[in-house]
Amino acid sequence: MKGMHHDPARTDVDASEFWENRYRTGRGEDGRMWSGRVNATVEAQVAGLTPGSALELGCGEGADALWLAEHGWRVTAVDLSAAALEVAALHATRAGLAERVTWQQADLTTWRPTQEYDLVTSAFLHSPFEFPREAILRRAVSAVAPGGRLLVVGHAASPPGSGHDHDADAPPLPTPDEVLSSLELGDDWGVESNTTVERSVTWNGHDVTLLDAVVRVRRPMR
Ligand SMILES: C[S@@+](CC[C@H](N)C(=O)[O-])C[C@H]1O[C@@H](n2cnc3c(N)ncnc32)[C@H](O)[C@@H]1O
Q1: In angstroms, rounded to a whole number, what is the distance separating the alpha carbons of residues 134 and 136?
Q2: Quick check: is 163 in a domain?
Q3: What pLDDT was estimated at residue 168?
Q4: Which residues in the chain come in under a pLDDT of 50?
Q5: Which residues have a Cβ under 8 Å from the Cβ of 16 and sit 6 or more positions away?
């Protein structure tokens, strides 16, 4: 994985151009920017759930969406970057999973879900721009079906070399408690995870331990 410079005040380029350029120029020899493997924290959170319909917000190159599809979920996966979605769709076809995933190019700052899902998930929905992440996640809450779940996985500490750790102006990363309270859930929702977990990865060529913030909540049955 390559680092991400975090500068919320940047105005030199718009978000769409930034991500498009990042995915097109960041591709490694296998055609991908990211590893192509499901995120270990996402896998651990979802592995025990009964498959159904799933919505992924900010799916990037689709590794998590493909893992979900492979494990029986019918997935709608949304991202801003057409370049990332091209890679995702290519790998879906290669894996024989194209029928199980709908890739949707959209800007989540204005996008509204139009149906409900058994699982709504977002992993590392961070951006180096002004980004209404909390509002997006609150809309995600509205897309959870009765008895369904919302999973939010994010960085709880800056990945080494991301630039974020040296940027005093960057907003602090939200703790799981802060993510949970920003969702503004009713009292009847169940909190299934509200924690930080360590994850060992190779990051910018070094073996490092990352800290993920994990929130998983469940909407009550009707
Ligand atoms: C740090 S990446 C994480 C990608 C993927 N979830 C993963 O874990 O590898 C953040 C993703 O959010 C997407 N993104 C950023 N701003 C967005 C927006 N306004 N609407 C939709 N997607 C956006 C980017 O294109 C990028 O794929």
Answers
A1: 5
A2: yes
A3: 52
A4: 1-9, 166
A5: 80, 81, 107
Number of domains in the chain: 1
Return d(Cα 127, Cα 59) in angstroms, integer.
13
- CATH code, domain with 101: 3.40.50.150
9 is a domain residue: no
Angle of CA points 55, 109, 177, to nearest 5°: 70
Amino acid sitting at position 210: L
Strand order in the sheet with 101-105: 101-105, 74-79, 53-57, 117-123, 144-155, 206-218, 190-203
Nearby residues of 143 by Cβ (< 8 Å), 6 or more positions away: 55, 113, 115, 116, 117, 120
Q: Does 5 reside within a domain? A: no
pTM of the model: 0.91
- Collapsing DSSP states into helix, strand and coil, what is residue 161? coil
Ligand 1 atom nearest residue 60's Cα: 27
Nearby residues of 166 by Cβ (< 8 Å), 6 or more positions away: none
Q: Is 125 in the pocket of ligand 1 (CB under 6 A)?
A: yes
Q: Is 175 in the pocket of ligand 1 (CB under 6 A)?
A: no
Looking from the CA of residue 153, the nearest atom of ligand 1 is 8
Give 6-65 as a DSSP string. Answer: --TT--SS-HHHHHHHHHHHS--TTS-SS-SSPPHHHHHHHTTSPP-EEEEES-TT-HHH
